[in-house]
Specification:
The structure holds 3 protein chains of 3 kinds.
Chain A: H1 6-30, H2 36-41, H3 47-57, H4 63-75, H5 89-124, H6 129-141, H7 146-160, H8 173-207, H9 210-217, H10 222-260, H11 265-274, H12 278-306
Helix pairs in contact in A: 1-12, 5-6, 5-8, 5-10, 5-12, 6-8, 7-8, 7-10, 8-10, 9-10, 10-11, 10-12, 11-12
Chain B: H1 3-9, H2 13-38, H3 40-43, H4 75-111, H5 113-128, H6 131-142, H7 146-174, H8 176-183, H9 188-224, H10 236-243, H11 251-279
Chain C: E1 5-16, E2 19-31, E3 36-40, H1 47-54, E4 63-72, E5 75-76, H2 79-85, E6 90-93, H3 97-100, H4 107-118, H5 123-136, H6 142-146, H7 155-167, E7 173-177, H8 185-202, E8 205-210, H9 213-219, E9 222-227, E10 230-236, H10 237-242, H11 247-255, E11 277-287, E12 298-309, E13 314-318, H12 325-332, E14 340-345, E15 348-349, H13 354-364, E16 365-368, H14 382-393, H15 401-411, H16 428-441, E17 446-450, H17 458-475, E18 478-483, H18 486-492, E19 495-500, E20 503-509, H19 510-515, H20 520-528
Parallel strand pairs in C: 3-8, 3-9, 6-7, 7-8, 13-18, 13-19, 16-17, 17-18
Antiparallel strand pairs in C: 1-2, 1-4, 4-5, 9-10, 11-12, 11-14, 14-15, 19-20
Helix pairs in contact in C: 4-5, 4-7, 5-7, 8-20, 14-16, 15-16
Classes of the chains: A mainly alpha, B mainly alpha, C alpha/beta.
Chain lengths: 312, 283, 551
């Protein structure tokens, strides 16, 4: 399967991007006005600690040396210490990945479960009442702010109906899942608006495409034409759209985690910003960027699997 | 194919009208927000930061159509004054990225070579960061506030315009009319500004509208997180944030500013869709 | 004997928002068992729509069949039974196999799909049957083709795959909608021969829709000519071609490029002056993939081409797609990077002194393009486009630009009012005339026309060719005319250059090349051109069903 050979080589192409990411995150913290040692350690640091950090990060050396130290530390899994939580940033991040990952996966799965049927309904009855409804809702849905949508869902499902917890994160898997339903839905609803529009457009184009005409001309029933020829062809651009929107989606988790007090990476970042815990902000930004690169890589693999024409 | 060629020549009145209703509706929404923002001092029922301690958390009524908040401020007045800030966010947050991105994209697409390669690598790196995460990181350095938001927008937002314009220019460059212009000895500047750029801009005009939605949502979200517009200024994201503690008692403080965002965003989306139809652009 | 398929009084109306137009008017047509009926007409004549209507696949919801009946073997068919008939009794193939084959489903599955649906075959039986079909339509390794995707094959093989899909359930009637228009001429000959063979072997009846009377003359038994939604004439092939009744049929036959008219054959030009173009061992290579970690590959578009073009000459450059003829045009105008070799224009060497030569080229040479819509900036009016050229050339005083635009439009036979129109509101032929006017605005000594009539209807083609002939006679212009259509080149050009795979195969005076080609490739190319004379049979390409197998 030489079409999949890129899986071996593509990671090499990440190297320049990863370098770029490391430069930006490095520069971000160095641009903060003030003494870098105090920025890294917080305002109440002891002189011995400051001396130690100066040596470790080479803060008296030229900037490019400092960057090399930064890379060296990074390679050793050393991302500094959180001034707020007093533990290694890497360990802190490790404990916060799970809820964020669960949110993203849940958001994508729910969004697809919502978008595919609605797009199909809309495209197959183009110009009908259902189509107008779906178009209206999906066009408006793009403009729903997630922080507000989340609040409205809390109002409806947690306060009025009392079905689901208002906020936080549970201990047991079932408990966790219950806590994640509303935040997951918030993300999914925003995302599904975008997906529905793209899928609908793809399906409508597909229904009047030459491929569909040819399938009808050989007597295939309309259902077969739709699900076996139109949908698979419409899915390829949708996967690309999902990949393009993954950055937007991860940004969304930052807001949604704040709304629902989910102890994930996003909430960690926002707290870090407010408490001037710069090492944490840097670490989370780095983690998110690397995750985005990896997710795009996964999207490439899926696209190649879905469309035999694509060679990477 | 024979038949589509025939039907293409037919005037499509119904489709045209449908497009126009979309355009009219979209522009009407945008225009009314602009009017509200301009006329806020005269239209708003009261001062947006005036605190009436005798009228806290009142539900919607004739006196306060959208109720009052926990400080006794009139929600309608705050929503109307909020239009000033949120419209400003959407406009300024789009204009600078658009200008920078169009410039970079045109240069990169037209000249190619190492200029193009350099910009594309920068764009790759910027796009590797989730948009909001990079924005928040920059705001961390600059400190919270609307000014920081605009600077961060200009630093991050241009990449999508640059990519879009560059892709358009690359396609247009190979079109026969561009080759013709080249074979006729037109200057580079003439080919770029008279033949390529006007044709490339149609696509980004549509993108401007959908980008305005994203910028508006981001601006409001960053303000919601407390890193953008600062209270007591009336901004819709800030209002939702302030209302969250009272959601069990007073749903109206959360509902109305959110609806304002949704409506304004809808106006941009409708206009964008209508423009896409009219200009024959497909996203 | 009654006809297998009878169409009686069929009318189709286009309705949209109060607007109503009749696209097909009162059409009656018979298809006899085992015959090939050619349905001929130009774009917009309604020939494709007629066939779509017959199988109940209208291309738009705004179209309705308002009158008429269609009977199959004496039984009237209605919309309701259509789905059962399609594929089962009537199969259809299309112009563009690339867009009509599902890109994400294997070719084999697309054949098997019909077999499983209509004939209720098991997966295994359907696969066996599909492989048999692929062998029948000429796939050398049908087992492998079964599991392959459309993009892995050439255009000709894709069309064969589509024929296999259409024939899967053994239909009695095959509707072929411009099945060879997108193919090279030698491949076209192969596909037409395949259709005729399938008819003979399976007793298939075929409706062949085409714009090319030559294709009809070579492959059909009967011809129906359509124009503006009506059948203007119908009859046995030879009788109709020999003695057309309707003036439009006569015009179509006259416009056909293989028709030679007295005085058409251009006399060879004396080569007494210095050549206008001197091309020596010209090579153009394009990078083709590769790069990071994989070896760099190159595509050799031109592999050492040498050519002289003399002033006042009309040279035709012919070749199939990928032969390098367009690259040659662009390279000698300095629009493509030259890898090696030498090009000189009126003594200026492009490869040695590019700046001066380019300046000279801009004032002495102009190009006309294939796609008339794409060749004009959609945002400028024709007048603006022409004025821009005149101003850049700097030879026309500003005050006279208006008059000059008028003159240019006169020269190409466009009304002066077209100066204010944009390409979108014009037809293909009109846009092409505007494109020629733009080339003439340079006041060039040489025009390079790259496939400039390929996208046009035959009658319009004939007009544009006549326009060129007229311009050459009046202005002594040198013309380099690039085309895949040998028949047009034969009537227009005094000298022909045949290209294949980036090299010149043969060149010489048209009369000699067409009468006595020296190279086998040239001979095959000429023989593959469907002549409007049915008694000059189709000969090009290789016979394809040698790997015949019993089915």
């Amino acid at each position: 399967m030489h079409r999949y050979r890129f899986i071996l080589f593509r990671p090499l192409q990440f190297i320049p991007v990863l370098f770029g990411i490391s430069i930006i995150t490095f520069v971000l913290v160095r641009l903060i006005p003030g003494d870098p040692a105090r920025i890294l350690l917080g305002t109440r640091a002891t002189p011995t600690a400051i001396a130690k950090i100066r040596a470790q990060y080479g803060l008296d050396d030229p900037m490019w040396m400092q960057y090399l130290y930064f890379l060296k530390n990074l390679a050793a899994g050393e991302m500094g210490k959180s001034t707020l939580y007093k533990i290694d940033v890497l360990r802190l991040i490790a404990t916060r990945i799970e809820p964020t990952l669960a949110l993203v996966v849940m958001g994508v799965v729910l969004a697809l479960l919502i978008a595919v049927p609605f797009a199909a309904l809309s495209a197959r009855r183009q110009g009908g009442l259902a189509d107008h409804g779906v178009r209206l809702v999906s066009t408006a849905g793009i403009g729903f702010p997630s922080f507000w949508l989340g609040a409205m869902l809390i109002l409806l499902f947690s306060i009025r109906l009392d079905w689901l917890p208002v906020s936080g994160y549970g201990e047991t898997p079932v408990d966790k899942l219950q806590h994640l339903i509303l935040p997951g839905l918030t993300i999914a609803l925003s995302l599904s608006a975008v997906l529905t529009r793209s899928l609908r457009a793809g399906m409508i184009a597909g229904l009047s495409s030459d491929v569909a005409t040819a399938a009808r001309a050989r007597g295939m029933p309309e259902n077969t034409v739709f699900w076996r020829h139109v949908v698979p062809n419409a899915l390829v651009p949708t996967v690309n759209l999902l990949a393009v929107n993954i950055g937007w989606l991860i940004g969304g988790t930052v807001v949604v985690e704040s709304v629902f007090a989910v102890p994930g990476l996003g909430q960690l970042m926002v707290r870090g910003i407010f408490s001037r815990d710069y090492m944490v902000v840097q670490g989370v930004a780095l983690t998110f960027a690397v995750a985005t690169v990896l997710i795009n890589f996964a999207a490439d693999i899926i696209t190649v699997a879905l469309d035999p024409r694509i060679k990477l | 194919m024979t038949a589509p060629a025939l039907s293409r020549r037919a005037p499509r009145w119904r489709a045209f009208l449908r497009r126009r209703t979309m355009l009219v509706a979209g522009l009407a929404i945008l225009a009314s927000f602009v009017l509200l923002a301009l006329l806020a001092p005269w239209v708003a029922p009261s001062d947006p930061i005036f605190q009436d301690t005798t009228a806290k958390l009142l539900p919607p009524s004739l006196a306060h159509p959208m109720g009052t908040d926990n400080f006794g401020r009139d929600v309608l007045a705050r929503v109307i004054w909020g239009a000033r800030i949120d419209l400003q966010i959407a406009v300024i947050g789009v204009v600078f990225p658009f200008l920078i991105g169009t410039g970079v994209g045109t240069v990169a697409g037209f000249f190619g070579g190492w200029v193009d390669a350099l910009f594309m690598r920068i764009i790759d790196v910027v796009l590797a960061f989730p948009f909001l995460v990079l924005m928040l990181s920059i705001i961390t350095i600059l400190g919270p506030g609307l000014g920081s938001f605009y600077i961060a927008m200009a630093l991050v937002g241009w990449v999508s315009y640059a990519r879009l314009i560059r892709a358009q220019i690359l396609v247009l460059k190979t079109q026969d009319f561009a080759v013709a212009a080249q074979s006729l000895g037109f200057s580079r500047a003439r080919i770029m500004f008279r033949h390529l750029l006007p044709n490339a801009l149609a696509g980004s005009l549509v993108f401007v509208m959908s980008d305005a939605v994203l910028v508006l949502l981001n601006g409001a979200a960053i303000s919601y997180l407390g890193l953008g517009v600062q209270p007591p200024l009336a901004e819709w994201g800030v209002m939702v944030a302030e209302a969250q503690g009272f959601i069990t008692q007073a749903w109206w403080i959360t509902l109305f500013p959110g609806l304002a965002i949704v409506t304004l965003a809808f106006g941009f989306s409708l206009t964008g869709d209508a423009l896409a139809d009219l200009l024959g652009v497909h996203e | 004997m009654s006809a297998q398929l009878e169409i009686r009084g069929l009318s189709v109306v286009y309705r949209d928002a109060g607007e109503e137009r009749e696209l097909l008017q009162d059409i009656s047509l018979d298809l006899q068992r085992g015959e090939i009926l050619g349905l001929v007409g130009e774009s917009g004549s309604g020939k494709s729509l007629l066939c779509r209507t017959v199988i109940g696949l209208m291309p738009s919801r705004s179209l309705t069949m308002t009158a008429g009946t269609v009977t199959l073997d004496g039984v009237a068919i209605h919309d309701t039974d259509m789905a059962g008939l399609r594929g089962r009794r009537i199969g259809m193939i299309f112009q563009n196999p690339t867009s009509h084959l599902d890109p994400v489903m294997t070719i084999g599955k697309q054949i098997a799909e019909g077999l499983r649906h209509h004939k209720r075959l098991s997966a295994v039986a359907a696969k066996a049957e599909a492989i048999g079909l692929l062998r029948q339509v000429g796939f050398p390794d049908p087992g492998r083709a079964y599991g392959s995707y459309a993009h892995e094959f050439s255009g000709g093989m894709r069309q064969r795959a589509m024929i296999a899909v259409a024939l899967a359930c053994d239909p009695e009637i095959l509707i072929a909608d411009e099945p060879t228009t997108a193919l090279d001429v030698t491949i076209q000959a192969q596909i037409l021969r395949l259709l005729i063979e399938l008819r003979d072997r399976r007793g298939l009846s075929i409706i062949l829709i085409t714009h090319d009377l030559g294709v009809v003359a070579q492959s059909c038994d009967r011809i129906a000519v359509m124009r503006a939604g009506r059948i203007v004439e119908e009859g046995e092939k030879r009788a109709l071609l020999a003695d057309p009744r309707h003036p439009y049929t006569r015009q179509l036959i006259d416009s056909h490029p293989t028709m030679t008219h007295a005085g058409d054959e251009p006399a060879p030009h004396p080569h007494d002056r210095k050549p206008i173009f001197e091309i020596d061992d010209l090579r153009v290579h394009f990078p083709a993939g590769g790069g990071f970690l994989t070896p760099k590959r190159e595509f050799q578009a031109l592999k050492g081409v040498s050519l002289r073009v003399w002033p006042g000459e009309t040279v035709g450059i012919v070749g199939e797609s990928g032969s390098g003829k367009s690259t040659l045009a662009r390279a000698i105008l300095g629009l493509t990077r030259i890898t090696s070799g030498q090009v000189s224009f009126e003594g200026h060497v492009l490869t040695r002194d590019p700046k001066a030569t380019l300046k000279h080229l801009h004032h002495g040479a102009a190009m006309v393009f294939q796609d008339p819509f794409n060749a004009l900036n959609p945002r400028l009016t024709i007048g603006e486009t022409l004025a821009e050229v005149l101003r850049t050339q700097g030879e026309t005083p500003a005050a006279e630009i208006e008059t000059r635009i008028g003159e240019l439009l006169d020269m190409v036979g466009l009304e002066r009012s077209y100066a204010t129109r944009r390409p979108r509101s014009m037809s293909g032929g009109q846009c092409q005339r505007a494109g020629i006017a733009r080339a003439l605005a340079v006041n060039p000594r040489v025009i390079i026309a790259d496939e400039c009539v390929a996208a046009l209807d035959v009658t319009i083609q004939a007009q544009i060719v006549a326009l060129f002939r007229d311009l050459i006679a009046r202005t002594g212009l040198t013309l380099i005319f690039i085309a895949h259509d040998l028949a047009i080149v034969r009537t227009l050009c005094e000298r022909v250059v045949v290209m294949h795979h980036g090299a010149i195969v043969e060149e010489g005076p048209s009369a000699r090349i067409f009468a006595r080609p020296e190279q086998a490739y040239t001979a095959a190319l000429i023989a593959a051109v469907p002549d409007i004379d049915p008694d000059r049979p189709l000969n090009g390409g290789q016979t394809t069903l040698q790997q015949e197998s019993a089915t």
